[in-house]
Design goal:
globular; 13 helices; 326 residues; mainly alpha
């Protein structure tokens, strides 16, 4: 963001934020389509997720964190399911990620869940059970190698190993940050309902297809154990601090859309699909108009620029006068 600001000033920063938001939602959409290609389910879930994520559409490196985490998961899915080799570029993504944001630590639960869950699914497949995104041994080895290389590439940054442990220092039990910074405090039902709602929907999205397969006495499940392993640390983090609600939403949205796709008949005719999309946006607009969904923020205004009413000019002048930085 600093480089873009130096080159293109404030409009460049705003457009970069908008670009990263569009980019990571495009990645989430493409990821949610694999393997069922159920556009209706994907659109429905992702549009609803915007109500949670919109608060984090800000000019901060977090947007790149959402993009890189989604891109990493997409590349793993593409490799396991279709044999696509995007995954070979992920160490370069890890290098870029580590030099932009300290959330590079997220590659550990992401890769770890697919390696551990993939191995378990592979062993269960030998007993006749079928799960989504089950890798063979060769692909498991490749995932492990890419993970290790990505870890080492992530060390190439000005902070070296500290970039991986920065979050644990900030979130320690007795740190000043955790007590004084609002986004690092624990969410409650009174303050933030979204982690409770997302976790509940996640639970149902795993439970309903599982029960459906049991009743039909099927050994094929529209689920992935890797996904279950993946969401556990993100759910845990979401209840640790408010700021971690948003990574959970990014990771959970495609999983929910995929798990529930069997309950959403995929549109076969283009006209039906267009009507479904139009209807979704119509419902969204109606809810906004009636008031249950407020899309405005009192501290934000539409446009390309800065609302100088919110900038403490006096305090900034005092800091400049006394050579205070930080």
């Amino acid at each position: 963001y600093y480089l873009v600001w130096k080159l293109f000033s404030i409009p460049g920063v705003i457009f970069l934020m908008a670009f990263t938001v569009v980019a990571f939602y495009t990645v989430l959409y493409l990821d949610s389509l694999r393997p069922h290609r159920n556009h209706l389910s994907s659109l429905f879930v992702l549009i609803l997720s915007v109500f949670i994520m919109r608060e984090r559409f800000v000019e901060r490196p977090d947007t790149f964190s959402f993009l890189f985490s989604g891109l990493t998961i997409l590349s793993i899915h593409a490799y396991i399911h279709d044999g696509k080799r995007y995954i070979y570029f992920m160490p370069l993504v890890a290098l870029l990620w580590a030099n932009i944001h300290s959330s590079i630590i997220l590659i550990i639960p992401i890769y770890g869940s697919f390696i551990a869950g993939g191995l378990l699914q592979y062993l269960l497949s030998k007993r006749g059970y079928a799960f989504l995104f089950t890798p063979d041994i060769k692909k498991l080895k490749t995932l492990t190698i890419v993970f290790i290389v990505s870890l080492f590439m992530g060390l190439i940054n000005p902070n070296f190993l500290k970039q991986y442990i920065f979050g644990s220092e900030v979130m320690g039990p007795f740190t000043w940050y955790k007590h004084e910074i609002a986004e690092l405090q624990k969410p409650t039902w009174a303050t933030y309902k979204s982690p409770f709602i997302v976790t509940g929907i996640l639970f149902l999205s795993f439970l309903l297809p599982f029960v459906r397969s049991l009743f039909k006495k099927e050994k094929a499940f529209n689920l992935s154990i890797s996904h279950l392993f993946l969401i556990i640390p993100f759910v845990y983090m979401a209840f640790m601090a408010i700021r971690f609600i948003f990574p959970l939403t990014v990771v959970a949205s495609p999983i929910i859309a995929r798990n529930l796709s069997i309950f959403f008949p995929s549109p076969r005719v283009s006209r039906t699909f267009v009507m479904a999309v139009a209807g979704t946006f119509a419902v969204y607009a109606l809810l906004v108009f009636l008031g249950p969904l407020d899309t405005t923020f009192p501290r934000k205004k539409i446009g390309i620029g800065i609302d100088y009413r919110l900038i403490p000019e006096g305090a900034l002048r005092y800091m400049d006068k006394n050579n205070i930085y930080g």
